[in-house]
Amino acid sequence: MFFSGQLARFHHWQHRDLWAFCKWVALSVLVGSTVGLVSSAFAFCLSQVTAFRQAHFWILFCLPLAGLVILALYHILNMDNDGGTEFILASVRDARQLHVRQVPLIFIATVLTHLTGGSAGREGAALQIGGSMGNKLGQLLHLDDRDERMITMAGMAAGFSALFGTPIGAAVFAMEVESVGVMYYSAIVPCFLSALVAKWVASALGIAATGFTLASAPHLTPLVLLQLLALGVLLLRDGPLCIRKPGSWRITSACLRNLWRVGTPLAAERAALSSAQVLLVRIVSGLGTVAIAANSLGVSAEGLCYMAGYGIQDASIALIGQAVGAHRRDMAKRFAWLCTMMGIGIMALSGVGLWLFAPALMGIFTADAAVIALGAQVLRIEAFAEPMFGASIVASGAMQGAGDSTGCFVLNLVSMWGIRLTLASLLAPHFGLVGVWMAMSFELTMRGVLFLVRLARGRWLDKGALA
């Protein structure tokens, strides 16, 4: 009796497992084929729009319009609070219901973004398309919560596999992406089979797998290990490079007002500086052809020296923007002075190089002896202003990072129009091009002094989030 009872239970389990296996084979083929078709169409569209963008550079200027179209689509379909990939993962964890309209939305949004040169990865889109389709199939088939989670994971694996041609990686990724380090082994058959079917469908439709060639692997030396450990310490939760401030990414009217408040003075500053340069060229144009050529080529040669300063300016904007967002006034000040001193030092070295190699720099652009001689003379005058020019470049970036774009506009306006243009118009008739560059050198020095004074007073910190 005992053995007969055990045998009956064994047959019951065997039939139950066989039924579950057959059920998931059928569901996996269904998910893999449907998601594979849609993902193949998605991959084809991405390749086509990428080729079109590369052949038509002008399409990049349509990126803002594409953003508005995407925003309007999400609003019309009532998906303003869409959680993206995170919401797909939450559906696996908490058995949430997904909206099938997310599939055409992410499809169209990603294609438009790639068409107009925006930055959007394909991984999240593949997970959202596949996961949403799998979840909707589970709803239509009235699966229970456990099976609905598994079919959602199978859809994610299918979408990833069809797009990238990596069925094994897609299946493993889908099984552990919800909780890193935790494998959902019950989903092995659905994820692997749906990924394989989706890969076969994509291959049959001519979608080539993404391939990357690894030319060489970096050597893992003791120094590299120490560098990685040091980076890990800096990026710890309480490390100096870890600045976290929770908040919403939703665009609000306050965000738009801040954008207008910061962006308008910057646009006015660009207009003021550009128009002043036009007037300077007008002053130089009356000094003869040699002066015109020396001025134009001198500006190009000088541009080689302050590229590093603008690079540090970009870094200062990012660092101080982070500190402002974290409400760290002390950190913002330290970053501002650190970046500014670095800019002064590097630009001082550039000035030394400019003074020493002025004739060689001019010789790169022309073989005319008169133009080289005059250009070298004015470049050596300009070399003395490089440190303070670096101070103005980096300090203005620090202030812009804190939201003080109005202060930068006023200082640049006063300096360029009140000092450079005035002195250039007075000195040019008497000293020629040398007088124009003397005015430029004096103006850049005074501009640096003005920015350093404002930086030291600290009022620029009261213009942004630290107000």
Task: Give the amount of beta strand, in percent.
Answer: under 5%
Radius of gyration: 31 Å
Helix content: over 70%
Number of strands: 0
Structural class: mainly alpha
Poorly predicted sequence stretches spanning 5 or more consecutive residues:
none
> What is the string of helix and strand elements?
HHHHHHHHHHHHHHHHHH
Inertia-based shape: elongated
What number is the mean pLDDT?
80
- The termini sit apart by 84 Å
* Number of separate helices: 18
| Major sheet summary line | none
Walkthrough of the structure:
The chain is mainly alpha-helical and 467 residues long. The protein contains 18 helices and no strands. The protein has helices at 2-55, 63-76, 85-94, 102-115, 123-140, 145-164, 167-176, 188-204, 222-234, 253-285, 289-303, 307-325, 329-356, 358-365, 369-383, 386-401, 405-431, 433-457. Helix 1 runs parallel beside helix 8 (188-204), helix 11 packs across helix 14 and helix 16 (386-401) packs across helix 18 (433-457). The longest helix has 54 residues, at 2-55. The mean pLDDT is 80.
Task: Please specify the SSE layout and strand pairing.
Elements (H helix, E strand, L loop, with lengths): L1 H54 L7 H14 L8 H10 L7 H14 L7 H18 L4 H20 L2 H10 L11 H17 L17 H13 L18 H33 L3 H15 L3 H19 L3 H28 L1 H8 L3 H15 L2 H16 L3 H27 L1 H25 L10
